[in-house]
Amino acid sequence: MNIDIKLHKNDLPEDLDLGNIIAVDGEFMGLNVKRDPLCLIQISTGNSDAHIIQLDREKYDAPNLNKVLSDASIIKIFHYGRADMAHIKHYLKTETNNILDTKIASKLARSYSDSHSLKTLIKEFMNVDVSKQFQSSDFGGELSPAQLKYCANDVIYLHKIHEELNKILVREKRIDLYKSCLAFLKTRVDLDLALFKDDIWSH
């Protein structure tokens, strides 16, 4: 697949029309939100394209990106949005609204599997074996072509994957449970930011 990858410095262009359903992912220096900075946000319209925003980590001034993320009329598809949304809220100081999540959908729909990684979902639903070689690489400096391709792979398949998972959720009558989980996701992010990492429902 030929991917149209565009790298944007600091923010999205003001006049960019991404449509009303986008896939979103972030890259950080690690998984500790308050220690490990948000470096990149990548967005795809689902048309074999990837817009990769390399953020200014001194200012995090990205009004055009923030407008898209907070716009409730635009659907955002994540894979494990919990981590991305926490970094976005902490560093960009904005809420991410109108969220879908392929990892949550997979765990509810694909009870026949113990693997819910993006790599697994891409292989099952797209029959593409993507490399995760650069998953643990330094996204804080200059980006190599291989890193850019890795970032693009994280978003270009999410529209189709969510569509297929949604079919299973509807068929298995789990779609309402999925919607309830999505409604709680922002609260789960707030619990993470408040350092409540454990399952608060446990005994």
From TrEMBL:
Which superkingdom does the taxonomy of this entry point to? Bacteria
- Give the source species: Pelagibacter ubique (strain HTCC1062)
Hydrolase as a keyword of this entry, yes or no, is yes
What's the Enzyme Commission number for this chain? 3.1.26.3
Q: Which InterPro entries match?
A: 3'-5'_exonuclease_dom, RNase_D-like, RNaseH-like_sf, RNaseH_sf
**Record domain 3'-5' exonuclease: where:** 3-170
Give the GO terms filed under biological process for this record. nucleobase-containing compound metabolic process
Protein name (Swiss-Prot/TrEMBL): Ribonuclease D
Q: Does the keyword Transmembrane apply?
A: no
Which keywords, in A-to-Z order, does the entry hold?
Hydrolase
Q: Which GO terms describe its molecular function?
A: 3'-5' exonuclease activity; nucleic acid binding; ribonuclease III activity
